[in-house]
Please model this.
Amino acid sequence: MLRPQRARRVEHTDHGHSHGLVDESIKRSREGVRAVSLALLVLALTAAAQAVIFVASGSVALLADLIHNVGDASTAIPLGVAFALRSAKAERWAGLAVVAAIFASACVAGYEALERLIDPQDVEALGALAGAGVIGFAGNWLAAAIRTRAGRRIDSPALIADGAHARADAYVSLAVVASAIGVAAGLRAADPLIGLGITVVILRITWDSWKTVRGAHHRH
Model:
C-alpha cells in the first residue's frame, strides 16, 4: 500500500502546476532583470558621454537627446523592480511608468528648445557635437536590441515597448548630427528647431508605447 501512495506523491510533484510555474517565473525574472540592467549600463554610459559634450557645445538639440536618454535609462528602475517581484501587475505598472518617463522627457526637451528659439545662443565644438549624435545612435541601438530580444523571449510587452522606444531614439540621436551640420552651414536656428523636431518624435513614441502597454493590460 505504501508503494502506490509514494508513486502518487511523485506523480503529483512531477505534474503539479505550481512547481513548474515557480521555476519558469524565476527564470523569467532573472532574464528580465539581466536585460534591464544591461540596457541601463549602456544608456548610462551613453548619457555620460553626451553630457560631457553638451557642456562643451551648448547644443539644445543634444540637450533634448540627452534628457531623453536619461529618461530612457531611468525606466530600467521600475521594470527591474517588476521583474524582481515576478508580478504581472507590477510589470504593467512599470510599463505605464515607462510611458510617463518618455512624456516627461518630451516636455522638458520641448521647453528648452522653445526657450533657445526665443533667446538664441552660440553652439560650439561642432565636431564633438556630431560625435555625440553618433554615440547616442550606437548606445540606443544596442539597448534596443537587448530589450527587444529579452522581451520577446519572456513575452514582456513592457520590455518590448521599451525596446521599440530605444530603437526610435537611435534615429532621433542622428538629428544631433544634422544639428551640427546645420550650424556649421550658418543656420543658427537649426539647433533649436531640431530640438523641437526631436520633441515631436518623442511624443509620437509616447503614444505608440502607450498603445502597446494598454493592449497588454487588456490581454491580461
About this structure: Confidence is low (pLDDT under 50) at residues 4-22. The chain has one domain: 2-219. Helices lie at 2-15, 17-57, 60-74, 76-85, 88-118, 126-154, 157-184, 190-219.
